[in-house]
Structure formats: structure tokens, C-alpha cells
Amino acid sequence: MSKPTVNRILKSLFASAVLLTLSACATGGEGAGKAVPEPTPRLATEKWTNRIKVDGHPDEIQLAAHATGVSANQDQALRALVSRWLSAEAREIVVSAPLGGGDPAVASRMAMAVRERLVMLGAPAPQVRLVGYDAAGNANAAVRVGFEYFVAEGPRCGQHWENLTATRKNETYDNFGCALAANLAAQIASPEDLIRPRDSTAIDAGRRDTVLGKYRKGETTSSAKDDQANGAISKAIN
């Protein structure tokens, strides 16, 4: 067999191998048949922040529907509920009125009275939501009042302390960053913030118009200087 013939055969085999490789990539696709690995943390401490567990728990009381409104005992229960809601820094309180149970007029008035009482006890009106639930024909169905609070549980640290000198690898300890995540879980005021952000508050349209008006006129937009903030020591009141 001549040398040109051998070269043509080798080129043909190489082209066939390339075509087979390209067809395999086209049919299999990227990552076909393989489990997608979890993203590697950029820092050694980030792997611990993903191990903070946040669980939601309901805090609910049930109030009997009275035609005369909220009783004294129910008022005390609502006071305690609002106190726990403020301590938990929860998002909203839900008042659930029974539907399809006893007297719908009494249940409706009771639910409205409960909502008004919650607002009087310090819960902002936009954060007190009134809904209905199916009472399934129960004539004694109660008005449910409650909220959901969240608890953050951090990782357990100090379980494994390896000897870095034994491996001779320039790597961090496996526990590195664990205490940071545990402290975060223990100190955060509202664990729900780790799940979703809070709703933004409404803008102050009046203040915005005032500042923009002064800006267009070339006036100073900052607030006037407070004489009490000049650093002088005030005299004692006799």
C-alpha cells in the first residue's frame, strides 16, 4: 500500500472519530445523564449559612362568637396575643371568621369586633387581615385569631476538629464559619427575614414634593439646623 493511500485512510478515520464525538455531544446535551452538583461556596463560611434551618409555627387562639361582642376573658387573650406578636416581630395577624356554621351575622360582627380590638391594642390596621374559613356546618364554630412566627436553628459546631498538620493541605477547618452561622441564627430578631424580605414602606409624597420644589428653586433641601445639636451644654432645670 502506497504512502498517499495510507494518509487518506488515516484522515478518513480521524474525520469519522470527530463526527462521532460531535454527534454524541449533540444528542446527549450538556450534563445529560449526570446529577447537577450543588454550587460550591465561594468562601468557607458560606457553606454554613445554608445550614441555618428556619421553621414556621402557628400561634392561634379561638374565640367563641358572642352577639354582645368581645368578652372580658377574650379581651385578655387578645392582649396576650398582641404582646406575643410584637415580640416575635411577625408580619400580620389573621382573623378567620367561620362560614357556613352558626348565625353568619353574629360571626361577622364578632370578627369585625376582634379586628377593631386588635387595632386598638397596637396592631397596625394594614397588618390585621380578615378572612373566612369553612365551618363545615358547625354551629359552635369559633373565630380564629393568630399569626405565624419563625424560629431559626443554627448548626451544631465543634463536632469534628481535624488535624491540618496531618494532611499537609492548605485548607481551612471543616468547622470554620460554623460559629458565625450559629450566632446569626441565635441573634437575628426576625428569622422570617432569612426566608423573604420585608415589604417596603410607602413613600412620603409630601416630603418628596417639598424637597423637589426647593431643589428646582435652588434652595437648600436639608432640614434647618437644630440649636440643640450645636454641642453646647444646657443649663440644669431648677
UniProtKB/TrEMBL annotation:
Q: Where is this region: Disordered?
A: 214-238
Q: Which InterPro entries match?
A: Pilus_biogenesis_CpaD-related, Pilus_CpaD
Which residue intervals are annotated with compositional bias (Basic and acidic residues) in the record?
A: 214-228
What's in the keyword line of the UniProt record? Signal
Q: Where is the signal peptide?
A: 1-26
Looking at the record's lineage, which domain of life comes first?
Bacteria
NCBIfam families in the record, alphabetically? pilus_cpaD
Q: What is this protein called?
A: Pilus assembly protein CpaD
